[in-house]
Amino acid sequence: MVRRAAEAGYEAAPNIALVKYWGVRDEALGLPYNSSLSVTLDKLRTRTRVRFDPALPGDQFVLNGAPQSGGPAHSVTEFLDEVRAIARIETPAFVRSENNFQTASGLASSASGFAALAGAASLAAGLKLPPAALSRLARLGSGSACRSLFGGFVEWRAGSRPDGRDCFARPLHPASHWPSLVDLVAIIADAPTKPVRSAVAMQRTVATSPEYARRLREVPARIRAMKRAVSVRDAPALFDLTMVECDSFRLVCETTDPPLDYLVPASRAVLAAVRSTNTEAGATIAGYTHDAGAHVHVFTTRRYARSLRRRLASVAGVEKVLALSPGPGGHPIRVVGR
Ligand code: PMV
């Protein structure tokens, strides 16, 4: 039992998967069928403070200044239970979290959110977890969160052990490895909120998509090729692989029964604009990807970023285009005041 209030803070950023995680072989432990690869982004971030306090009547979760109940509060309590089990405490916690971007907007707030919560809660509980253990912990909140603890280019190895001990993310290259890489995020106006949680949707794909088995066979070679492209900073190879992977992800979603269609006409127009840009350039100067949402991430290099940003911003239905770069991993932050 924590007898006195113990508080800690942690900051983490969203990541965008270049090779997607979609489907788990163990739902309780969140063990994926395939490994995945991502880039942690700069500028966007979640800041979370956790205080274990024996005087509290129960867990409390305040998100962007608003006290939460129902689903979000329940997920936080479930996650805190994991931390309490490791730390062998039963103390309730006060959690205050702030995103500097729109929550649940398809910008991976669950990845940065659970990475920040894992960092803050484990520190506040007096645990000094090594990176792999912290990544395993974050995975229990949201799969993609295990990658957001690290900066730059990150690989989440699926592992093969039934207990998940070999299932965690590790950094491949820091953000400084490829500073000229730009992620233009086309924010789609009035993007619909997800009708089904990703954790549920992906299991429908596993159970019903006739394309899923082929995808699983293809992914390991794609990861190897992508790691090679990233290590030598081969932009055209990376962009081609990113689009092939995104199309494979979209295909298994669209062939799920009932179909999962995350895009809206404006998102599809962004994909078309990227294809035309490459055709006109006579080379692959940009590559698109998207997650389970309508916004589209377009990777390019600094040389082409300004003109491509203008082109994407002019697509009907695009509200704005963020220009992001590879960013730092999660880290503790100082907590001041209550
Ligand atoms: O981390 P979750 O459970 O929200 O699922 C994320 C799934 C994708 O974003 C579509 C892919 C990924 O690897 O991030």
Task: Please describe what this structure looks like.
Helix 1 (70-87) packs parallel to helix 2, helix 2 crosses helix 3 (131-141) and helix 5 (212-231) runs antiparallel to helix 6 (235-254). The chain has 338 residues and is an alpha+beta fold. It has 2 domains: 6-174, Ribosomal Protein S5, domain 2, CATH 3.30.230.10; 181-324, Alpha-Beta Plaits (2-Layer Sandwich). Strand 7 (60-63) and strand 8 (66-67) form a beta hairpin. The chain has helices at 70-87, 109-124, 131-141, 198-208, 212-231, 235-254, 265-281, 302-313, and strands at 6-12, 15-19, 24-26, 31-32, 36-40, 46-52, 60-63, 66-67, 93-99, 153-156, 169-173, 181-188, 286-289, 296-301, 318-324, 331-333. It has 8 helices and 16 strands.
The number of helical runs is 8
Bound ions, cofactors and other small molecules, one mention each: (3R)-3-hydroxy-3-methyl-5-(phosphonooxy)pentanoic acid
How many angstroms separate the termini? 22 Å
The CATH architecture of the largest domain can be given as 2-Layer Sandwich
Largest sheet: 6 strands, mixed
Rg from alpha-carbon coordinates: 20 Å
Question: Total domains, how many?
Answer: 2
Element-level helix/strand string: EEEEEEEEHEHHEEEHHHHEEHEE
% residues in beta strands: 15-25%
CATH topology title of the largest domain: Ribosomal Protein S5, domain 2
Biggest β-sheet: strands ordered side by side in the sheet: 8-7-9-6-1-16
The CATH class assignment of the largest domain is Alpha Beta
- Secondary structural class: alpha+beta
Q: What fraction, in percent, of the residue positions are helical?
A: 25-40%
What do the pLDDT scores average to? 95
